[in-house]
Design goal:
By secondary structure, this protein is an all-alpha fold. About 75% of the residues lie in helices and about 0% in strands. The chain is built from four helices and no strands. Helix 1 packs antiparallel against helix 2 and helix 2 crosses helix 4.
Length: about 90
């Protein structure tokens, strides 16, 4: 993995950690989840099946050993914010 992309990812995860207290529907949470998806697509491409499988694996491991700096709290934050984003799309 490109070191510059990895650095961007680590910085984003650290920013998410600073905002774990915000509501999933808040503007900042939505911006963070949007940025996380942009970074993921930039690092791994647009292969939705691969990305879904990778995210499912991360979710299954969130109670165990994670890939630094991912934590269970970060995974839960991203999941909740993505859920709110998807709910908002269905309401429109």
């Amino acid at each position: 993995m490109d070191e510059d992309k990895l650095e961007i990812w680590v910085e984003l995860i650290n920013e998410i950690k600073e905002h774990l207290h915000v509501a999933p529907e808040s503007e900042i949470a939505q911006k963070l989840v949007d940025r996380s998806m942009e970074v993921v697509y930039d690092m791994f491409g647009n292969d939705e099946a691969f990305l879904d499988n990778a995210w499912n694996a991360i979710n299954e491991e969130c109670d165990g050993i994670m890939f630094y700096p991912m934590t269970k709290e970060v995974v839960n934050f991203i999941n909740k914010a993505r859920l709110q984003k998807n709910r908002g799309r269905r309401l429109k």
